[in-house]
Specification:
single chain; 368 residues; alpha+beta; 10 helices; 18 strands; 28% helix; binds flavin-adenine dinucleotide
């Protein structure tokens, strides 16, 4: 397994529990990139419609993490509200809610008054809201700690701070690190935004767009809200943690790229995001900001996941680029593990044949 974010860590865990000998190589610490710096929201309201069945399963996995993972990630299951402030947003909300409802998410449209009964911290600005009882969040910075313990318990050979430098196809795959080359019958590329350079090792071109999402967190305050709040356009995600801090996000873009990471915040966008947050939850206006940061999220050309075999390379797989991937990624990675173990996954994978050009000829005839 190359890459120890939520996708790599979960696939490694279920492969090891399924009886395989697994080694996981992570360039830094486990779940310290997107999977440890994200907003932790577990929401159906912002998930792509086609991913709703996966997100519902992912939500259930996070809610029961103590049972199957064995370690706490601070999951809070609560109501989610998506707001509309204008007539245009109300129409958008209606349409988005209907499509997600058809896909299985229990979302219903509520009046502004009903929304305020669900979330007393709400301002009087929203004119309509969509309510979903299947929402919530985790403390994403705890993800790596929880998975590290679970992976070690499952017997995974964990190599943190061990970047993979190249993968060489052959009778087995040679996984090259500074400490030498190790050989594996199968290899899974789980590198988040770095999937593109990883697959280039095999000569496969899978273009991955890099989103630089900004987030901010307030100091601890008395309770200002109890639900997860978003807006119809998707430009807000907001919730208060049990320790009193409130995390403010919504995909406002900062500066950075694959090579430099989330390098710089754009203050004017941060201010826009925070203004929107205070527009929804007025009590936030009294809170000071403690910290802001940016993380990198991967997106394919059609914004759908890249999960399945690497065409032309038997025993090579890819898993990543799942939109709202923290919510559903763990379930999707579990499906890939089932596939690799020779079991029929209960829901389909997302083969990458549609995203790569002509599959390159295998460099080794044994990898036809
Ligand atoms: C700021 C932000 C906020 C977000 N908020 C939410 C949210 O609220 N809800 C939600 O559902 N989703 C959210 N997401 C999306 C979600 O975080 C991602 O979809 C998910 O974490 C991606 O997981 P991953 O395992 O594919 O990638 P990553 O977590 O990025 O893991 C890839 C790993 O590969 C490693 N790697 C790279 N190159 C090498 C190499 N050469 N050798 C070894 N290892 C290597 C990296 O170090 C990294 O740890 C957010 C994303 C961001 C960035």
């Amino acid at each position: 397994m190359i890459g120890g974010g939520i996708h790599g860590a979960t696939a490694a865990l279920f492969l090891a529990r399924g009886g395989m000998r697994v080694a996981l190589f992570e360039r830094g610490g486990l779940c310290r990139e997107a999977s440890g710096v994200n907003a932790g929201t577990l929401t159906m309201q912002m998930t792509r419609v086609a991913l709703i069945p996966y997100a519902l399963q992912g939500h259930a996995m996070w809610a029961s993490a103590r049972e199957w993972l064995g370690h706490d990630v601070g999951t809070v299951v609560t109501d989610g509200l998506s707001l509309a402030f204008t007539e245009r947003e109300a129409a958008l909300l209606d349409e988005r809610a209907a499509r997600r409802r058809d896909a299985g998410a229990p979302i219903r449209i509520v009046t502004a008054a009903e929304a305020r009964a669900i979330e007393p911290g709400l301002s009087d600005r929203p004119i309509l809201a969509a309510h979903c009882p299947v929402d919530g969040f985790t403390a994403s910075y705890l993800t790596g700690k929880a998975y590290r313990a679970a992976l070690l318990d499952a017997g995974v050979a964990l190599y943190e701070h061990t970047p993979v430098l190249a993968v060489e196809p052959g009778a087995t795959y040679g996984v090259r690190t500074a400490g030498g080359t190790r050989y594996a019958q199968r290899v899974v590329f789980a590198g988040g935004v770095w999937i593109e350079p990883m697959l280039a090792w095999l000569g496969v071109h899978l273009p991955i767009k890099v989103l630089v999402n900004q987030l901010a967190v307030t100091e601890r305050t008395p309770p200002v809200m109890r639900t997860v709040v978003g807006i119809a356009s998707g430009l807000l995600s907001l919730k208060q943690y049990p320790n009193g801090t409130t995390v403010i996000g919504g995909g406002w873009q900062g500066c950075g790229d694959r090579a430099r990471g989330g390098e710089a915040l754009l203050p004017e966008r941060l201010v826009g995001n925070i203004r929107l947050a205070c527009h929804a939850i007025p009590a936030l206006a009294g809170a000071r900001l403690a910290r802001a940061w940016a993380g990198l999220e991967a997106e394919t050309a059609d914004a759908m996941p890249a999960v399945g075999p690497v065409p032309g390379f038997e025993g090579a797989y890819v898993v990543g680029s799942v939109h709202s991937g923290y919510t559903s990624g763990l379930y999707i990675a579990r499906l890939l593990a089932a596939h690799i173990l020779g079991r029929e996954p209960p829901l389909p994978l997302f083969p990458i044949d549609r995203l790569v050009g002509t599959p390159p000829a295998s460099k080794d005839p044994t990898h036809g």
